[in-house]
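ok so for the tutorial part 2 we go from a plain amino acid sequence to predicted structure tokens. step 1 is just haveing the sequence, like this:
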Amino acid sequence: MDILFEDSDVLVLNKPAGFIVEGPSKNGRLSLTDHIRKELGLPVYACHRLDRDTTGVLVFARNKNALSSINHQFASRRVKKTYLARVEGDWNPTWNRVETCISKKDDGSMVNSVNGKEAVTTFRRLANWDHKSLIEALPKTGRTHQIRLHALYHSCPISGDSRYGNPSDKSHPMALHARKLQLIHPEGKQPLEVIAPLPAYWANYWLKNCPIEL
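step 2 — the prediction. this is what the tokens look like for a chain of 214 residues:
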């Protein structure tokens, strides 16, 4: 895994697919937090989570003071997150905002519903080809599986999403990538912006024949 930024307070990684961030894993694999603590010998605390097959910018605090500061920024919605996703279907460029309520089902999956917690995401279509679309997503809230459900709201599931879509090819992880994250450094109080390169397989798989370059 690639380190995107590191100092005595903050560690930012480009998360690979296949890892949960915290907690026990069903396949016996260490969580990413435990992996860092064990393999790199670093005391770290996850500040937020990405789904198992979501890649990209992931922030860890190196001490409790930094954790408190960054957690407060997330809770007060001061952290700006930008995602890239390839979705199935022709995303209409007028679909620039989705607002739903998200609730949890008995099987542990999430669903757009009339009840639940408010969820808001803004979108921008970057490209469209072969009944596929590349979109940029900026979540304004931080609900579980929010971007995946908001893409599904317009019947354009994220490519490779085995839970909410119907992927015909599972040879690559889901096409959802946390591209950029912006926050205030907990110690220096200066803006910190980190950008994560896309996984290599995106270029010749998820973005094959895409009319734009990233």
